[in-house]
């Protein structure tokens, strides 16, 4: 009788672990660190943010470094973190947390950004983030869309939360090839980066 109870308990625990494992999304964050890289999102002494257009590095060395960090398994959070750091995402987005989860049967990488962006800077900021998202869709082929959420500074007392999303089809617009084709080699990644410099 005891043996049967133990067996049932083990089966119950295994089932619970499977359920928890199946529903848990990969969540990771990056804290602000001192960096020699120029940040495209900066803060002045009064706490106001300012955004400048991102100058994409299209050197062969950078393309090779990004390709080396390509993520083959979306469940491997360490690899995703390595890629986002190699991209220098924080210099573009400011501090962020990232989560990969299933939405409507697709894997979506969601970036939650903490810096407030002013309405006048939104267009430049979203274009910078679009370039980052294109690189993510190339180098994380298991992800079908990237979305970023951030507070927009408005005239009202509270900032409004904005969400922007870019899927594979949207990411291909304006490029000479399908977005996924740029992930085939370091040379192909460099081609994407070069095209992005003209954005």
How does this model look, in words?
The chain has 7 helices and 8 strands; from the N terminus they run αβββαααβββαββαα. By secondary structure, it is of the alpha/beta class. It has one domain. Strands 1, 4, 5, 6, 7 and 8 form a 6-stranded mixed β-sheet that branches. A two-stranded antiparallel ribbon has the order 2-3. The chain is globular and about 50 Å long. The termini are far apart. 27% of the residues are buried.
Helical/strand content category: alpha/beta
Annotation field: number of helices:
7
The largest β sheet comes out as: 6 strands, mixed
Number of domains: 1
Straight-line distance between termini: 71 Å
Low-confidence stretches: 6-24, 30-36
The topology string of helices and strands comes to: HEEEHHHEEEHEEHH
Shape: globular
User: Can you count the beta strands?
Assistant: 8
Give the C-alpha Rg.
20 Å
Helicity, in percent? 40-55%
Strand content: 15-25%
What keyword list fits this structure?
199 residues; alpha/beta; six-stranded mixed beta sheet; two-stranded antiparallel sheet; 8 strands; 41% helix; 23% strand
What does the secondary structure layout of this molecule look like, with pairings?
Elements (H helix, E strand, L loop, with lengths): L1 H22 L2 E5 L10 E3 L5 E3 L8 H9 L8 H10 L2 H5 L2 E8 L2 E8 L3 E2 L3 H18 L5 E9 L6 E8 H5 L13 H12 L2
Parallel strand pairs: 5-7, 6-7
Antiparallel strand pairs: 1-4, 2-3, 4-5, 7-8
């Amino acid at each position: 009788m005891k043996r049967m109870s133990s067996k049932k308990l083990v089966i119950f625990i295994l089932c619970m672990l499977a359920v928890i494992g199946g529903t848990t999304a990969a969540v990771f964050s990056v804290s602000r660190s001192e960096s020699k890289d120029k940040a495209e999102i900066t803060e002045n002494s009064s706490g106001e943010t300012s955004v400048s257009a991102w100058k994409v590095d299209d050197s062969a060395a950078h393309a090779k470094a990004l390709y080396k960090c390509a993520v083959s398994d979306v469940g491997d959070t360490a690899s995703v973190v390595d890629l986002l750091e190699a991209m220098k995402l924080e210099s573009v987005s400011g501090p962020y947390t990232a989560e990969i989860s299933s939405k409507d049967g697709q894997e979506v990488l969601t970036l939650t950004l903490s810096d407030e962006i002013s309405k006048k800077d939104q267009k430049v900021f979203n274009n910078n983030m679009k370039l980052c998202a294109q690189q993510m869709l190339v180098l994380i082929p298991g992800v079908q869309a990237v979305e970023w959420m951030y507070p927009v500074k408005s005239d009202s007392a509270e900032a409004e939360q904005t969400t922007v999303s870019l899927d594979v089809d949207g990411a291909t617009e304006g490029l000479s090839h399908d977005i996924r084709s740029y992930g085939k080699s370091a040379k192909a990644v460099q081609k994407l980066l070069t095209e992005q410099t003209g954005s």
